């Protein structure tokens, strides 16, 4: 339950990304700057946090020993996640981008067979948790209900450009996150891992920034300020909260799926935020019903996770009694 609560708070701060990315696009900002500036601004905050908490020696050792894997999975988990999201914001409204992004809750479950655990020196491939997959699909039904009324306002081309990049991001984020958890284990903490992934992804962000300078020039002050807000809210706070939650349950696919499903709450927060900040009208009854379905799905995930936790506790007690 604690991990799900952390995930919901992460979703709240993640929602800022979709709202402000859309706001920046509407005001003429380029997605190239929206994506790269976030990670440039994240870096000093993360350096300060890691310096104060643990220092850099452990992280330096981890990155030196597995440099190629850090570069690969940081690119997948950060670059292939965030660059497509900001690109999609140029073509689709926040509700479309944030709604499509929720495919990540199913993507995370489907990716389970790509990972293995070692038990008694035996390599065991993870299985897809079917109950968690079913509950995640219920949440997706709610998300589709939200999309239906709004879809009439978007052209087919904008629908594709606003959705396909987000589907790529939806698979890349949990894949990169899980692969990095598998690589690092418990040798470094969440803050160190986020900092390491940020550093390892910098070459890609520098390339995008150079392209931005050559094509659209320097960003406006408004875009710089909004990118700074996104960096702190989504890049530092939300990413850290979410990674802490997934770290705690990384060895249990069902619980991990439940934590990843908390990202469905982003749709709720984005709709509320766009109503307040961008003047988007109140959703119609079908969309409101969709929101209710999402909340029911989250409650089912919470209940299922609680049942799993109790069974695990009883199993541990039985082992101790033996």
Automatic annotation (TrEMBL):
Transmembrane segments: 31-50, 70-89, 95-116, 128-148, 154-173, 194-218, 224-245, 257-280, 286-309
Keyword Transmembrane: yes
Name the record gives this protein: Multidrug resistance efflux transporter family protein
Entry keyword set: Membrane, Transmembrane, Transmembrane helix
Name of one Pfam family that matches: EmrE
């Amino acid at each position: 339950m604690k991990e799900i609560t952390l995930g919901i708070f992460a979703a709240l701060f993640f929602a800022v990304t979709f709202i402000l990315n859309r706001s920046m696009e509407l005001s003429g900002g380029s997605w190239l700057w929206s994506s790269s500036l976030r990670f440039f601004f994240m870096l000093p905050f993360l350096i300060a946090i890691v310096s104060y908490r643990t220092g850099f020696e452990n992280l330096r050792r981890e990155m030196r020993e597995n440099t190629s894997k850090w570069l690969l999975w940081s690119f997948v988990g950060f670059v292939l996640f965030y660059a497509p999201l900001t690109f999609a914001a140029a073509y689709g409204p926040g509700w479309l981008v944030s709604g499509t992004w929720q495919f990540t809750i199913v993507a995370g479950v489907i990716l389970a067979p790509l990972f293995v655990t070692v038990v008694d020196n035996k390599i065991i491939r993870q299985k897809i948790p079917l109950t968690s997959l079913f509950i995640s699909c219920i949440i997706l039904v709610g998300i589709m209900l939200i999309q239906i009324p709004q879809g009439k306002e978007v052209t087919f081309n904008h629908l594709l450009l606003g959705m396909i990049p987000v589907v790529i991001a939806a698979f890349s984020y949990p894949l990169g996150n899980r692969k990095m958890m598998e690589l690092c284990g418990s040798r470094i903490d969440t803050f160190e891992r986020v900092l390491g992934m940020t550093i390892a992804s910098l070459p890609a962000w520098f390339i995008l920034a150079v392209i931005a300078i050559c094509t659209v020039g320097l960003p406006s002050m408004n875009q710089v300020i909004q990118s700074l807000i996104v960096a702190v809210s989504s890049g530092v706070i939300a990413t850290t909260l979410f990674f802490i939650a997934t770290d705690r349950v990384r060895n249990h696919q069902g619980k991990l799926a439940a934590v990843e499903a908390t990202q469905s709450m982003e749709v709720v927060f984005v709709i509320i935020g766009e109503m307040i900040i961008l003047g988007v009208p109140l959703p119609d009854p079908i969309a409101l019903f969709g929101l209710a379905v999402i909340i029911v799905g989250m409650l089912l995930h919470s209940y299922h996770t609680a049942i799993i936790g109790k069974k695990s506790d009883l199993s541990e007690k039985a082992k101790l009694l033996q």
